[in-house]
Amino acid sequence: ENVLFYHLVIGTKVIIAYAEIVRDDPTNNIPDTIFAKLGMQLHRRNQHPLGILKNAIYDYFDTNYPDKFDKFDDLCPIVSVRQNFDEVLVPADHVSRSYNDTYYVDSQTVLRCHTSAHQAELLRNGYTHFLDTGDVYRRDSIDSTHYPVFHQMEGVGVFAPNDWEASGTDATSHAAEALKKCLEGLAQHLFGGVEMRWVDTYFPFTSPSFELEIYFQDQWMEVLGCGVTEQEILKRSGRTDNVAWAFCLGLERLAIVLFDIPDIRLFWSTDERFTSQYPPCYKDMSFWIRDSFTENSVKLLEELLETLPRRYVHVKLIDNFTNKKGMTSHCYRIAYRSMERSLMDEEINDLQWKVREQVENKLKVVLR
Ligand code: FA5
Ligand code: MG
Question: Which residues are in the Aminoacyl-transfer RNA synthetases class-II family profile domain (predicted)?
Answer without folding.
Answer: 134-279
